[in-house]
Design a protein that fits this description.
The chain is 45% helix and 13% strand. With 296 residues, the chain is an alpha/beta fold. It has a single domain, classed as 2-enoyl-CoA Hydratase, Chain A, domain 1. Helix 2 packs antiparallel against helix 9 and helix 9 packs across helix 10.
């Protein structure tokens, strides 16, 4: 199968590029595991001191690929959760633990500096990829959004919004689903630098070279020191708590509509793929009839 990731090392910098431009770098299961392999490869290479994450095509990432039909059993398991084949919420939670929450936790803890170079749109799950990186550089045409409240969910699985934006702006992003400019994201501290689109890659590499000139062990310690400070503030517990609310949303929607999203919030291009019926209502009617001893 064609790889969804490009990987190269130049001057001690690992350049990992999301490479599904025809899908606007939407993350399917294959991309998730190939990205994890690329991060592991860079982390274990003693010649690599900094990692840059970028995207091919017009956008950094359109988020999770809602049209993906591949389950993840065909890839080597990363987390220890298990139960992926179980029915109901048990299997769904196990899947999202593996391919979203645990993956992001691993990538955030890579003991080397990481830089996300974002251009075009960064939507939903694309935010998760940028937020696990230590620094974010954005092109002047970049925009950011988390539109999943419209889909009936409280936010993406790696719920770092309050730390990236502050609580009130985090609520605004979630409540409205609006796209935010790179300039606004920079003002709020989510983005480190905003540069012209044509200069994005070279600026990210130049920043990576400056970082790579520092002692590797000191870089590891500095990253761990900042991560520990955020951990003490409660970020891991808050992300875990939000993840359970995320799963509650999925369970409600599966009961209500038979799919894990509110059909009204599904992008128009994907509407035909998802049923518009409400089997949850049918199921409830059958339960009421069973209790009453009658046929629905």
């Amino acid at each position: 199968m064609t790889s969804t990731i490009r990987y190269e090392v130049v001057e001690g910098i690992a350049m990992i590029t999301l490479s599904r431009p025809e899908k606007r770098n939407a993350q399917n299961v294959r991309m998730t595991y190939e990205l994890n392999d690329a991060f592991d490869r860079a982390a274990r290479d003693d010649d690599v001191k900094v990692i840059v994450l970028a995207g091919d095509g017009p956008h950094f990432s359109a988020g999770h690929d809602l049209d993906d039909v591949v389950w993840h059993e065909e890839f080597e398991q990363v987390s220890t959760w298990g139960g992926y084949g179980e029915p109901g919420a048990e299997g769904w939670v196990a899947r999202e633990e593996e391919i979203y929450l645990q993956m992001c936790a691993r990538w955030r803890s890579i003991p080397k500096p990481t830089i996300a170079a974002c251009h075009g749109k960064t939507i939903g799950g694309g935010l998760m990829l940028a937020w696990v990186c230590d620094l974010i550089v954005a092109s002047d045409d970049a925009t950011f959004a988390d539109p999943v409240v419209a889909m009936g969910i409280c936010g993406v699985e790696w719920f770092a919004h309050p730390w990236e934006l502050g609580p009130r702006k985090a609520k605004e992003m979630l409540f409205t689903g609006d796209f935010w400019t790179a300039q606004e994201a920079h003002r709020l501290g989510m983005v480190n630098h905003v540069v012209p689109r044509a200069e994005l890659t070279e600026f990210a590499l130049s920043l990576a070279r400056r970082i790579a000139a520092q002692p590797m062990f000191a870089l590891r310690l500095a990253k761990e020191a900042v991560n520990q400070a955020v951990d003490v503030q409660g970020q891991p517990s808050a992300i875990r708590a939000a993840f359970t609310l995320h799963q509650l949303g999925h369970s409600h929607l599966l009961e209500r509509f038979g799919i894990c999203m509110d059909p009204a919030g599904i992008p128009p291009a994907l509407q035909e793929r998802f049923p518009s019926a409400e089997p949850g209502d049918v199921l409830r009617e059958r339960r009421r009839a069973a209790r009453a001893g009658t046929k629905p």
